[in-house]
Amino acid sequence: MKRILLSAFFTGCTCILTAQTPAFISDSLDSYIHRGMKEWQVPGLAIAIVKDGQVILQKGFGVRDISKPDKVDEHTLFMIASNSKLFTGTSIAKLDHEKKIALNDPVTRYLPWFRMWDSTTTRLITLRDVLCHRLGTKTFQGDFTFWDSNLPKDSILWKLRYLKPTGTFRQDYGYCNAGFLTAGQILQQVTGQTWEHYVQENILTPLGMEHTYMNTAGMQQQANAAAPHSNMFSALTVLPFDNIDNLGPAASMVSNVTDLTRWLRLQLDSGHFEGKQILPWEVLQKTRDANITVNSRKNSNYPIHFVTYGLGVYAADYNGRQVYWHTGGAFGFVTNLCFVPEEKLGIVILSNNDNQRFFEALRYQVLDAYLGVPYKDRSRFLQGFAARNRKETETGLKRMQQRVDARNSSPVPLDAYTGDYYNTVYGRIRITKSGNNRLSCSFQHHPNLTAMLEYMDNNTFRLTYSNIGFGVFPAVFTLKDGKPETVQIKATDFIEYDAYLFARDPQGLMIK
What's the angle, vertex CA 252, arms to CA 145 and CA 254, rounded to 5? Predict the structure, then answer.
């Protein structure tokens, strides 16, 4: 097969194009990425494509940090967030294959103290259940409490008993990060190794993934690390680095496209890498088997009819091929990995702005090119939805600013709002008087996070988090007998969809 080596064309990257390479990839990909990054305000992005056992492209675009000139390359580190999940699912599937555990074992066999909201779910819930998002909880339910918090891993699992399900156990899909943490804690019980050590020893080291790290801690000290950015609630700005190691098995891995091509090559070669069997094929099969249906209706915008979830990976049909993928989102980062075994095709895209869907558009565009889907500009299509969302957010922020600028007087003195408020799931927040006629809120389980409250009207304050990634939202108080009794606190949907109701009553309210 004729090959064209273009490494001189792309400084600091690998690009090997074959005669079968689609024209979009060989002729248009660079310009498409440059244009998309500009339109979506993506500071930096890295992409790699694997085809027929070879890495045909791995390249960086843009900068690691908008305040510095350092460029993204194929070795730049990004938080891969929920792309950590397939490593966890694969580890549990390997232990199942070795008969050290069984996917259908009840969780309480290994964690006798584990509880869900109701006794029936507690008794029935298995390892398979916690790895495929079918617990009955709502997507992201509890994550405001868990994400970037100081809660130890077992304390997060303890709090699952306070999450009242919105769906039906084993029937309704609801994305649950804490489920994967549960699996990681069981892995430690069974093997005597931490999740981090087990994945390192059984997957990363055999694959030679020398620049993949199991935890987010210390990422900002790495020499070639992308910085997290967002423009969801402000102009494009650098965010603090997440520390989500307490949710490790769900979200804490850090990697680059060079290392992740090795993971993709293993997925595309039935568990082999460079001629060596790293994982049994049966292990990979277990991760891909459908455990719950996410959607079974034809997608009018993409050639997809169904979506299912296995053990840390989604599956769908795409123009007649079986496609596996997962996305990952941490503050300032969104990423995806995708592989199509029938085409021996793998794609990894890492980016450092969390308020954009270009990383998804790019994946679909590459899939379209290789799978024979007629060209449609996926980025421009998704921009239409994004523009409406941006306008809605900007309108809401503007209206809150106008309400603050009105300088209305609160119905009771600001001192009356101060004190401790409680929520059964979260714990305690503390509201204190601040300068300039403002209140300040601190959070029991987020010691590095505060929020400023500025009065608007109707017992409602504008709440602005010190980490702007968490957002800007109305905080609504209720009064009883002229005294503030409860306050509703919201954070970005990127973390959790529902608001939390905090009450002065130390017993709290079982409401979120």
Answer: 145
| Number of Cβ atoms within 10 Å of the Cβ of 4 | 12
Burial class for 20, CB neighbours closer than 10 Å (0-12, 13-18, 19+): exposed
State pLDDT tens for residues 389-443. 999 999 999 999 999 999 999 999 999 999 999 999 999 999 999 977 899 999 9
pLDDT in tens, 130-140: 999 999 999 99
Closest CA to 150 of 426, 423, 445: 445
- Answer for the pair 510, 164: CB distance below 8 angstroms, yes or no: yes
Which residues form the domain of 390?
379-512
Count how many domains the chain has: 2
d(CA 328, CA 78): 11
Q: Are 366 and 385 in the same domain?
A: no
Q: Which two tokens stand for residue 437?
A: 């006629």
**Torsions phi, psi for 255 (to 5 deg):** -155, -175
| 321 vs 317: CA distance, rounded Å | 5
CA distance 123 to 118: 9
d(CA 381, CA 234): 24
173 lies in the same domain as 283: yes
Q: Quick one: pLDDT at residue 435?
A: 79
C-alpha to C-alpha distances, 194 to 187, 217, 363, nearest whole angstrom: 7, 16, 33
Residues 75 and 223 in one domain: yes
The predicted-structure confidence for 352-374, as pLDDT tens digits, reads as follows: 999 999 999 999 999 999 999 99
Boundary residue ending a domain (372, 388, 422): 372
**Is residue 390 located within the same domain as residue 359?**
no
Q: Are 76 and 259 in contact (CB under 8 A)?
A: no
Kindly list the distances between the CA atom of residue 438 and the CA atoms of 312, 316, 471, 508, in Å, as whole numbers in the listed order: 44, 50, 18, 25
- Residue 34: enclosing H or E segment and its boundaries? helix 29-40
In the block, tokens 């990995």 appear at: 337
HSE toward the beta carbon, residue 260, CA cutoff 13 A = 35
Q: Name the band, by pLDDT with cuts 50, 70 and 90, for residue 327.
A: very high
**pLDDT at residue 36 tops 50:** yes
Helix (H, G, I), strand (E, B) or coil at 328: strand
Confidence of residue 38 (pLDDT cuts 50, 70, 90): very high
**364 and 387 inside one domain:** no
- Per-residue pLDDT, 7: 36
Q: Which of 372, 407, 442 is the last residue of a domain?
A: 372
The CATH number that applies at residue 183 is 3.40.710.10
Specify the pLDDT at position 2.
Answer: 33
Question: How far is residue 118's CA from residue 121's CA, in Å, rounded to a whole number?
Answer: 6
Q: Which residues pair with 450 in a beta bridge?
A: 442
Residue 471 CB neighbours (<10 A): 22
- Tell me: do 432 and 324 sit in the same domain: no
- Cα of 44 vs its chain's centroid, Å: 18
| Residue 349: Cβ within 10 Å count | 26
